[in-house]
Design goal:
Length: 233
Amino acid sequence: MSAGNSRIVETNQTGIHEQLDNLVDKYIQTENLKPIQPHTKKAFEQVITWLGAWEGDIIFDSCCGVGLSTIALAERFPDAKVIGIDKSEQRVGKHLHHSQAVENRLNNHLLVRADVIDFWRLAVAHKIQLSHHFLLYPNPYPKKTQVQKRWHGSSSFLDIMALGGVLEIRSNWLLYLEECQFVLNKLGHSSTLTAINGQIVDFQPLTLFEKKYINSGQTCYRLVAPQYLEDKF
Ligand SMILES: C[S@@+](CC[C@H](N)C(=O)[O-])C[C@H]1O[C@@H](n2cnc3c(N)ncnc32)[C@H](O)[C@@H]1O
């Protein structure tokens, strides 16, 4: 999916997937034994070196695309170290190309090319604890048969939980976030689900996808867990 594509999500699902409850029960009992891909291991080592002896807040901007949100978050949280992660070499490369001036000005963010499935596992094993975790406009996988590809339909969601912090997931597909909220509830976490458009004063889109959706008149939603809302963004 490209940021140029602003179509409304079409799905053959009418409500929360009826298998989701069982799926979560299953993945809670399954250990992911897949080997970690070398490029992600390398990216993770780069991040560990960059963090050094850092003991302050750490923020993940997972699946950050070209990393506009990573910059915005680095500006919004100047006392934190913000790590943008995306598996697309092309998107990560675009960030570096477009933002040299910002790179020179802000030294509290880093963008890496990595698969978050492996990256999150490594971070959990390394006992990294986040202050915030942003997952902005994840691929929706809207077909009913694709439920296990959604983050909350996969065991990766447990790694997201283990990383802690305030989790914020945004989407233009309300059902995606309702499903996330369902899983969060099942795992014992409260959350708040709201529409973004018109709710936030001086709203500035955080990402390219958000900008496209809002410009095309769609409603975007944010799910924040634990139940806690920040007034801007
Ligand atoms: C719909 S785009 C959203 C990008 C950005 N957050 C935005 O809102 O503009 C989804 C992004 O997730 C990334 N992605 C999907 N699966 C991933 C994975 N397993 N690891 C890292 N990035 C992934 C894709 O490369 C893509 O950039």
